[in-house]
Write a structure and sequence with these properties.
Length: 299
């Protein structure tokens, strides 16, 4: 087992940030650790990476105990913290060389060059970290986590704060890295888990509420798709209800409608507007709210 967590609790003062948490991650898996802010994701990740002791329970990484065999664990774990503290005044190469030195890596130069290539930092490698975009800083963070070639990668909200293009790039990079490593990444976005992970562990208020493949979790939480659509001209609700997949059509104001649908009908809405001799002014699919998933799981 790459990660074993058995009966772990963490108490901050009087608050139970983690409450009897248990789960396992197998070698080679990419597991999503999903939960709203304050759920306990970062706390769990700090415990796995030896940055914080648990109050109760046992955590093992590649069979080594995080409290008793810290050095063995640290050799095998790469960690990208939530607020990745990078040295902004350092150059990319210099910083990675410095991290390689901390790990006492022998062929430092080749290692740094290899990792720069792996995370796609070639064109930015001569710049100061402070001069990089957030997406490229995150690549430096990933490089830092990977430089000692760990078996297990712990990534705390690796895409938070990035723009949509950067998110896509970092996600595919994680998938690429995940081909030969065990990865556990936290996120508060349901869609992210589906895009990247084999399995998802959902945590809410310090407790695990689900642990399954994302397809299974979605299937058991059949929530409806909400689509917001605005037409250029008035439309009848009965006509909207005639579109296959639309279960409910609510008029918000003017020609703005909120549709509850079984399937994503955005494509049909364009055809529909043409048939009705009008056009679509706004079209928006509302993201499934994590809160809805939790409500379904905890009820
Ligand atoms: P997440 O990463 O899921 O947002 P965290 O693990 O950061 O959640 O936090 C879980 C809970 O523990 C939160 O309610 C948070 O306020 C609390 N917490 C986190 N760190 C500390 C700390 N150092 N001292 C006291 N409470 C903390
Ligand atoms: Mg966090």
């Amino acid at each position: 087992m790459s990660i074993q967590v058995v009966g772990v609790s963490k108490i901050y003062g009087e608050q139970n940030a983690l409450d009897n948490v248990s789960f396992e991650v197998k070698p080679g898996e990419i597991v999503g650790f999903l939960g709203p802010n304050g759920a306990g994701k970062s706390t769990m990740m700090k415990i796995i990476t030896c940055y914080l002791p648990q109050s109760m329970g046992v955590v093992k990484v590649c069979g080594f105990d995080v409290t008793q065999e810290e050095m063995e664990v640290k050799k095998r774990v790469g960690y990208l913290p939530e607020h990745n503290p990078l040295y902004l005044e350092m150059y990319v190469k210099e910083y990675l060389g410095f991290i390689a030195g901390l790990h006492k890596i022998k062929n430092k130069k080749e290692k740094v060059a290899g990792i720069i290539e792996l995370v796609g930092l070639q064109i930015e490698q001569k710049k100061k970290i402070g001069a990089l975009s957030k997406g490229y800083r995150q690549r430096v963070g990933l490089a830092q986590a990977l430089i000692h070639d760990p078996e297990v990668l712990i990534l705390d909200e690796p895409t938070t704060g990035l723009d949509p293009n950067q998110i896509e790039e970092i996600r595919s990079l994680i998938k690429k890295i995940g081909r030969d490593k065990t990865v556990m990444m936290s996120t508060h976005i349901m869609q992210e888990v589906e895009a990247v992970c084999d399995r998802v562990i959902i945590i809410n208020k310090g407790k695990i509420v689900a642990n399954d493949t994302s397809a299974h979790i979605r299937a058991s939480n059949q929530t409806l798709i909400t689509i917001k659509v605005e037409f250029a001209a008035p439309i009848l609700s009965s006509d909207l209800m005639g579109i296959k997949g639309v279960l409910e059509a609510k008029n918000v104001s003017g020609n703005l409608w909120l549709l509850q649908c079984k399937t994503d009908v955005r494509d049909q809405l364009f055809k529909f507007s043409l048939e009705k001799n009008t056009s679509v002014i706004t079209l928006q699919k509302e993201e499934e709210k994590l809160e809805d998933v939790f409500r379904n799981l905890t009820n």
